Each structure stands twice: as structure tokens, then as C-alpha cells.
Amino acid sequence: MILDKTVELEIEGKTYKLCYPMKSVHGAERELFQNNLLVTVAQGINGLPPNLSDMYTIFKWGIKGGNPDFKEGDIENLYYAAVREYDVITVFRMGLDAVKKSGILGDTTKKPAAVLATPGKDPDTATETPRS
Questions:
Q1: Is the pLDDT of residue 116 over 80?
Q2: Rounded to an integer, what distance in angstroms lies between the CA atom of residue 40 and that of residue 43?
Q3: Buried b (16+ CB within 10 A) or exposed e, 68-102
Q4: Average pLDDT value for residue range 77-94
Q5: Which of 18, 32, 61, 128 has the fewest Cβ atoms within 10 Å of its own Cβ atom?
Q6: In angstroms, what is the C-alpha Rg of the chain?
Q7: What pLDDT score was predicted for residue 40?
Q8: Three-state helix/strand/coil letters over the chain
Q9: Which of 57, 41, 61 is nearest to 49 (CA)?
Q10: Are 95 and 52 in contact (CB under 8 A)?
Q11: Whole-number Å distance between alpha carbons of 72 and 130
């Protein structure tokens, strides 16, 4: 069985892959506003898109993960072409899908709030969970 951990997108008639190996996770975390990929992704899943710089960062490191030979200037031009072809939110969601497929989030069928949950608190109510 082959697991596909990429998200393909077509830009100007060419197909590109977004992928999040650990190198991309670490690279993105260094550049994100909150320096935390999991928080940025969880907020995006919960409908709170990050600032535009973080949206670009998610795309950039996903493209680097799926197309390692790309150079910085090429990625920036590709991002603007992707935004023209889709829109900024759709491109960001494609990046989120690539992060989810990477496996870094674990089981993404669970509630997204669980990613942001504080240990010892119920992610649905943010109240203390009973201790046994």
C-alpha cells in the first residue's frame, strides 16, 4: 500500500505538489508569526485564517516539501499565480490539507479544537476535566 501524503494543485496548466515532510514543518515553524505550525493549522481548521504572511509561509514550505528543487523566487511567483488562479483562502486550505496528510496532526478526524486543547481541560467546553 502506498500512502499519498501530497496535495496536487494545477497552476497555469502545470501540476505541483504540496507536501509536509519534517524539514518543511521545521522550516515553517521558524517563519510563522506564532512559530507554531500546529496552532496556525488548528486556527485555520477552526475558520480563523492567519495573516497573509503566514498563508504564504504555509504554501512556501508545502511547495518546498513537494518540489525540493524550487528556489525562493520561483516559489513566490508560483504563489501569486496560485492566488490569481484560485484565491488566497483556497490556496491556504490546500496547504492545510497537505499538513493534515503529512500525519503530523495525528488523527484529523477528531475535533480540530483537540489540537489546541490545554492538557487537563475539555476541548469542547474549556472546563477542567475530572481527575480520577
A1: no
A2: 5
A3: eeeeeeebeebbeebbeebeeeebbbbbbbbbbbb
A4: 94
A5: 128
A6: 16
A7: 85
A8: CCCCCEEEEEECCEEEEEECCHHHHHHHHHHCCCCCHHHHHHHHHCCCCCCHHHHHHHHHHHHHHHCCCCCHHHHHHHHHHHHHHCCHHHHHHHHHHHHHHHCCCCCCCCCCHHHHCCCCECCCCCCECCCC
A9: 41
A10: no
A11: 49
User: pLDDT of 11-52, one tens digit each?
Assistant: 999 999 999 999 998 999 999 988 888 888 888 878 787 889
Rounded Cα distance between 72 and 64, Å, is 9
User: What is the rounded distance in angstroms from the CA atom of residue 124 to the CA atom of residue 117?
Assistant: 9
CB contact at 8 A, 1 and 72:
no
With a cut of 80, say whether residue 107 has pLDDT above it. Answer: no
Domain limits, the chain: 6-116
Cβ(8)–Cβ(86) below 8 Å: no
Give the pLDDT of residue 46: 80
Q: How far apart are CA 9 and CA 22, in angstroms?
A: 21
